[in-house]
């Protein structure tokens, strides 16, 4: 077998492989001999069929098998002798083959780049830390109390915040439309759960009152036949109830499954703390990835970039068709969007290869315990179906691997953060919750606002 490198351009490699006809014949003879030992043909005892007959009957059938093995061996030889690391399955094309002649084929592939990670100790990051606002705990307690509110029938006109029990029939041009009728419906006035303007027209009404409520459905209403169109509802007030939130005390805590008000406050605090920590983690990770992207510029396999771009573009087209295109993409032509998303694809591939290299070189592993924890978290997302989720993942290796990849990435990120200089920066919880792009825009606008205020002050003087 002769393997000749014909192209070495960046990460691209191409080889010409020639398998001599003699080697193919030897492989064929060996395979025919295996068949001859067990083949059964009429008129011959097992193992006694003449080779000439075996060849006539089976040579054509096994030729594909022989050629496939020769191609695989030639491809593996080209890769292993040069200690190459393919980025994906090599592309093989048969150049020449005829019975009794040499087999010639080409092998084209892209290899993974050689990566030299930067000195992670040179990375300086700020990690935002926010105290849990006492007001948020109080607000959450208030919301819980409202969800456990009670109501009593009152003999007075309805006011905002009251619960009214109503019958209604929705009509357009005097004809009732499907889905616009209900009896004994409970509606909290001021909740804004109905069409804009509907609830306001019931304020001041009393039990027994019958009124006509005129509204216009919003342009974006889910039912396209009603969207943007006027309608009238014949409404009968059956009862008016005054709503009273539950007392914020131990009894409220027991209603939600906890022993005391202190335990409820503690649970709320833990939940808010987890949210804030997750946001802080997300932001410092984003800053780290930005620093890693700025610190590495190695070539990446074009086919991996193509695959990443294709996935992004497919999602973008689906979002555009569904009318949920990202606002930052609005108004841009396809050429601009493709340029931006190809750059994003290249960044993602480069960072993915870098993190994989760092993890491999530093023996970062995903343990079975890590997978079990991730599987439990995934199952919790489907209350009542946990057993089915466990069965699905345990019987589907690809699904289990989909859990492994993000765990590995997070562990590598943790490894790098341990080496980087990370300082905590106290911030308000509201600032921590701001989208990084939104915060950056505000920072950019701040000097302009300051200058405008100064100019206004100067003018006033």
TrEMBL record:
E.C. code: 5.2.1.8
PROSITE patterns attached to this UniProt entry: FKBP_PPIASE
Keywords per UniProt: Cell cycle, Cell division, Chaperone, Cytoplasm, Isomerase, Rotamase
UniProt domain PPIase FKBP-type: residue ranges: 161-246
UniProt cross-references to SUPFAM superfamilies, sorted A to Z: FKBP-like, Triger factor/SurA peptide-binding domain-like, Trigger factor ribosome-binding domain
Molecular function GO labels: peptidyl-prolyl cis-trans isomerase activity
Catalytic class of the enzyme: isomerase
Protein's cellular compartments: Cytoplasm
Positions of the UniProt region annotated as Disordered: 427-461
Keyword presence, Transport: no
Reactions the enzyme catalyzes: [protein]-peptidylproline (omega=180) = [protein]-peptidylproline (omega=0)
Principal cellular location given in the protein's record: cytoplasm
Any Pfam family: FKBP_C
Note on domains (UniProt): Consists of 3 domains; the N-terminus binds the ribosome, the middle domain has PPIase activity, while the C-terminus has intrinsic chaperone activity on its own.
Recorded family membership: Belongs to the FKBP-type PPIase family. Tig subfamily.
Function: Involved in protein export. Acts as a chaperone by maintaining the newly synthesized protein in an open conformation. Functions as a peptidyl-prolyl cis-trans isomerase.
Protein's name according to its UniProt entry: Trigger factor
Organism: Magnetospirillum sulfuroxidans
């Amino acid at each position: 077998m002769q393997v000749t490198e014909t192209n070495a351009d960046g990460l691209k490699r191409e080889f010409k492989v020639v398998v001599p006809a003699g080697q193919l014949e030897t492989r064929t003879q060996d395979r025919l001999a295996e068949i001859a030992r067990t083949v059964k043909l009429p008129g011959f005892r097992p193992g006694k069929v003449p080779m000439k007959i075996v060849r006539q009957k089976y040579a054509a059938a096994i030729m594909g098998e022989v050629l496939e093995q020769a191609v695989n061996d030639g491809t593996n030889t080209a890769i292993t002798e040069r200690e190459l690391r393919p980025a994906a399955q090599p592309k093989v094309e048969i150049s020449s083959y005829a019975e009794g002649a040499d087999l010639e084929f080409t092998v084209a592939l892209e290899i993974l780049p050689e990566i030299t990670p930067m000195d992670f100790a040179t990375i300086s990051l700020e990690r935002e830390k926010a105290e849990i606002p006492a007001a948020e705990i109080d607000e959450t307690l208030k919301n819980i109390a409202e969800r456990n509110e009670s109501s009593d029938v009152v003999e007075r006109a309805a006011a905002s915040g009251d619960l009214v029990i109503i019958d209604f029939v929705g009509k357009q041009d005097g004809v009732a439309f499907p889905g616009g009728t209900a009896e004994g419906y409970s509606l909290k006035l001021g909740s804004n759960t109905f069409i804009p303007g509907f609830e306001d027209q019931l304020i001041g009404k009393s039990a027994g009152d019958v009124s006509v409520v005129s509204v216009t459905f919003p342009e974006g209403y889910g039912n396209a036949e009603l969207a943007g169109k006027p309608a009238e509802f014949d409404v009968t007030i059956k009862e008016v109830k005054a709503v009273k939130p539950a007392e914020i005390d131990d009894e409220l805590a027991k209603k939600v499954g906890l022993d005391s008000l202190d335990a409820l406050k503690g649970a709320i605090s833990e939940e808010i703390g987890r949210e804030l920590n997750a946001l802080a983690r997300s932001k410092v990770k984003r800053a780290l990835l930005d620093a890693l992207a700025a610190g590495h510029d190695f070539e990446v396999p074009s086919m991996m970039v193509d695959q990443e771009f294709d996935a992004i573009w497919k999602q973008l087209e689906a979002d555009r068709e569904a009318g949920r295109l990202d606002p930052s993409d609005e108004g841009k032509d396809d050429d601009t969007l493709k340029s931006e998303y190809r750059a994003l694809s290249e960044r993602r591939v480069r960072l993915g290869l870098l993190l994989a290299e760092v993890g491999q070189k530093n023996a970062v592993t995903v343990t079975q315990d890590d997978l079990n924890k991730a599987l439990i978290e995934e199952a919790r997302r489907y209350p009542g179906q946990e057993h089915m989720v466990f069965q699905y993942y345990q019987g589907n290796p690809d699904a289990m691997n989909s859990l492994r990849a993000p765990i590995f990435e997070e562990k590598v990120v943790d490894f790098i953060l341990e080496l980087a200089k990370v300082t905590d920066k106290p911030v308000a919880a509201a600032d921590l919750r701001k989208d990084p792009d939104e915060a950056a825009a505000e920072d950019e606008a701040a000097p302009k606002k300051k200058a405008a205020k100064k100019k206004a002050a100067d003018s006033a003087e």
